[in-house]
Amino acid sequence: MIASLRPIFLIVGMLIATLGGAMFLPALADYFSDNDDWEVFAFTGSLALLIGLGLYSGARGTSQGMSTRQAFVMTTAVWVALVTFGSIPYLLSGAVPTFTDAFFESMSGLTTTGSTVITNLDSQPPGILLWRGIQQWLGGLGIIVMAVAVLPMLQIGGMQLFKIEAFDTAEKIMPRATQISGVLTLVFIIITAICSIAYFFAGMSLFDAIIHAMTTVATGGFSTKDASMGYFESHSIHMISVTFMIMGSIPFILYVQATRGQPEKLWENTQVQTFFAILAGCTLIAFLLNTPIEGETTQTRIVEALFNVTSVVTGTGYSSTDYGQWAPGANAFFFAIMFIGGCAGSTSCGIKIFRFQILFETVKQHLKRIFYPNGIFVMRFNGAHVDDGVSTAVMNFFAVYFLLFGIFAILLNLTGLDFLTSMSAAGTAISNVGPGLGSTIGPASTFQELNDTAKWILSAAMLVGRLELFTVLVLFMPRFWKA
User: Is residue 424 part of a domain?
Assistant: First the structure.
């Protein structure tokens, strides 16, 4: 049994140690700001390094192979372990009063959800603000690697469409993932650096620019301000944010291909084309719902519509205004689009564009078979043949997604939350969007007022949603643990 866990300990230990090393950055930020919280980050970072390296050293020498069962366990174990260690600085620094709040904040950060229980962000020490940004940045990078290396191999929700030759089998994950993650990390760093420079020249302080760049490219949405992006009141900053939220929602493997002399892959990809078409259509609807107020220009309404739609569709969760106060129907509209998500293989969340494409193709194929029972119709995605297994996986994903959404909403309602808060909280958590709807958890509020039971339910929903449902659910099946 222990031997079968060694590859898992190896990966978990390595990533815990990486997280621990990252904690020394906010420690430095607090130290040079004369804030005593640097001791919290230094202690927690040392603890994480010690435990992480201990697990890694104990598992070294193991075979580089990993079974499919081990890959399932490893994926969930990594996220739970990193969230747990990442929550310690929040609690020890006093940024939040309870471990429940600390765990919720850490889960929201690493899953790039963006929901927060921390109030008075404007007055928080730099270390905590930087740590929130680092968590989302690392979470976004981890999601990309997971989407490229792990989920296609595990055939989760139709992700086998994106299987790369290097990851045909589980046994190839550990050596191959190291190689490709290096390239993806470099691309991720370059895009983040360009974003931070753009924010800085648009008027942000260097500190704000770096943190917002990390949370923008990771489509996470954590901000250094209570008013989120609305604090800056700058069309330039909002449009920069839109640009990089979109970049974070496009498959990162396409950027790698572009650097290798295939830039046409970016605009020829049907998933990307559909993503832009959905953004354009939703922005038009949002513009019509954005009731003009006295003195507000058409340009401002367009920017607000584009910014908030992009933020919600991509699952970033920034806000520039309380769109819940727009025309009747705005709440229903933003509730609906929070489920969409960006492209597979990106930092974005939600159901993902490709699944809507497969859904459309499946329905179209079914209708053709009704009219032409003897006809032969081939389903295609991005020019390639799609077998029935992919279609079935996507249909199952939709069914389980909305079943779980309903279950989480009911559980939240049973904790005492009203209908709107329960529904939007369940939706924003399982879709990893960030803000909900209404006065309690809307874009102008935080999740601090929710009871502890609701926060644990939402933490579970964020994890399940981020790991594409089945990666977690399969662990609760007795058959999974049988030899």
Answer: yes
